[in-house]
Amino acid sequence: MQPSVTTLTGMTDTHTQVLSAYPPPAEFAEQANATEEMYREAEADRLAFWATQANRLAWSKPFTEVLDWSEAPFAKWFADGTLNVAYNCVDRHVEAGNGDRVAIHWEGEPVGHSRSITYAELKDEVSQAANTLTDLGLVSGDRVAIYMPMVPEAIVAMLACARLGVMHSVVFAGFSASALKARIDDAQAKMVITTDGQYRRGSAVSLKIGVDEAIEGLGDASPVEHVLVVRRTGIDIPFTEGRDLWWDETVPKASTEHTPEAFDAEHPLFLLYTSGTTGKPKGIMHTSGGYLTQASYTHSVVFDIKPETDVYWCTADIGWVTGHTYIVYGPLSNGVTQVVYEGTPASPNEHRHFEVIEKYGVTIYYTAPTLVRTFMKWGREIAFEHDLSSLRLLGSVGEPINPEAWRWYRLIFGADKTPIVDTWWQTETGAAMISPLPGVTHCKPGSAMRPLPGISAKIVDDEGNDLAPGTDHGEQASGYLVLDKPWPAMLRGIWGDPERFKETYWSRFADQGWYFAGDGARYGKDGEIWILGRIDDVMNVSGHRISTAEVESALVGHSGVAEAAVVGAADEQTGQAICAFVILKSHHAETPHEQMVDELRAEVSREISPIAKPREIHVVPELPKTRSGKIMRRLLRDVAEGRELGDTSTLVDPSVFEAIRAGK
Ligand code: PRX
Questions:
Q1: Are the C-beta atoms of residues 334 and 509 closer than 8 Å to each other?
Q2: Which end of the chain is flanked by fewer CB atoms within 10 Å, N or C?
Q3: What is the pTM of this model?
Q4: What distance in Å separates the CA atoms of residue 394 and residue 389, rounded to the nearest whole number?
Q5: Tens of pLDDT along 483-525?
Q6: 560 is in which domain, residue-wise?
Q7: Is residue 556 in a domain?
Q8: 360: exposed, middle or buried (C-beta count within 10 Å: 0-12, 13-18, 19+)?
Q9: Residue from 531, 536, 609 to probe ligand 1 pocket by mutation (most atoms less than 8 Å from CB)
Q10: Atom 7, ligand 1: which residue's CA is nearest?
Q11: What CATH number does residue 652 fall under?
Q12: 77 vs 66: CA distance, rounded Å
């Protein structure tokens, strides 16, 4: 609830406050799942430590070997063990007598749309969906695209796939038809599961039309045999007889009996497309046993899950990896009760998240820094109208959290006493890698602190030499964040492109055999890790990962654009903002720039998603290039961020900037 005024007035951004560490509250430490001992245990015998974590799960056939790294960088974890992921997330809890526990408190975007689903009910629905998918011809190894808003059926669909050994490829419902088409095509998905529409800030908009467009776009080459449609909004949609089926007319009719088959630990579980440094998204491939082990273990220790009493809420969307690991597989494997919310935080007004916390007595809340900054902008008065006293732990993910936002989050949401876990990880890592352990770690606001027990990471220079611990004032040189030992939830490859997998992640430090994460980082004085963000051509906008090349390719897809260069510029609210520089083709020289800019923004939205719309588009006469023809993005970033230009000596024509600045 409302912190005292004295605490509030203490909230200035002075250096001392930035640097002070926050020890875990004694009462939290006493009951915490995580202990300091875990670091020692993992240090002493890393593989034995992971075997212990894996044995938190139910295996149909126990594994005898923990890790096979003989074909590095293609790892095999627990390879001779077999299990069923959906059984571990659902049936197991029912068999243990917890069938009546609520698995999901679902809260729709329109106020009043809500539904609570117990583990027993979830088991029935997942079984019915699995039977339906089997009836429709899906078999282990097939791919299904899931293009849905945050409705319970989306989670049921993912689990039904997992139960059958079918890979799901969840495509964020904010992505365009064109993005969906590329993902269906790449994965050769035999089925798409979708909804008629989705609620967006109070109105119902179609989603199914996008699916039709994607499939039509593939023409005769479309691999899609069926489209299963959940009725969410009731809006009118086109329906293709024979191909399309309503979920509510098929799934509930199927039997609730379904025997889960055991699959090898390395059986593929899902594909999740993410942006890389080229225009083509990569299908990141995850498998079963190792992924579930790390998802479940990290969820338990990082979020201190007490399944009997906690009400956990992760505000991510299932379209991103956070939704996969910390809405579906982590929480459900741990048998906890969670809240799943369909809508945006300001729908119908800025009170919504606080109301949901109050309504369900949320105890653990996990969100993104960009949302914390949005709450800060809306003002603390909104939070003060609500009873947030149920909260006992807060989490952050997706981008570095600035110390000011960290302290605000703890003060306003956490009554200045709840621990905050700032979790660093990636689609590729599958689960959290660097994070405080609540109850153990003395946190520094803005630092993800140190690798979790069992995980090994370090910061190195160009040659791979370890950086030394720094100071707390940021004077320490930054370096490359690398993962120097394999981990259970690591990606097993890029769908259909093993060479790209090696090249993207394993070539920078090939001699040492390390995974390079793409992030820059530095050490603080106690050896804790400060993540500085991406150092490749990947942008991070409100925690969404978008590649510069993807946006550039959407821009040059417009008939009026000759060339485009995109950079991410620092933005107070969204972390980074997309800034584009375009050269128009001569036949568009007379088109008013504003008109072109509007058209181009619409083009990006159509090609990728509204989330990828550039904040600014500058029409320029030329782009800064080196003699070898490479666009110098560093200089464009200087322009976008209004800085003095860095070194321009390698440019063919340094005067190009006067022209760019004049156009800006
Ligand atoms: O730059 C890092 C940033 O997000 C990237 C991974 O993005 P994605 O695969 O979409 O997964 C996001 C959710 C796990 C990383 O390379 N990132 C993620 N978490 C943090 C972070 N940066 C700083 N601090 C974090 N806690």
A1: no
A2: N
A3: 0.92
A4: 12
A5: 999 999 999 999 999 999 999 999 999 999 999 999 999 999 8
A6: 538-663
A7: yes
A8: buried
A9: 531
A10: 426
A11: 3.30.300.30
A12: 5
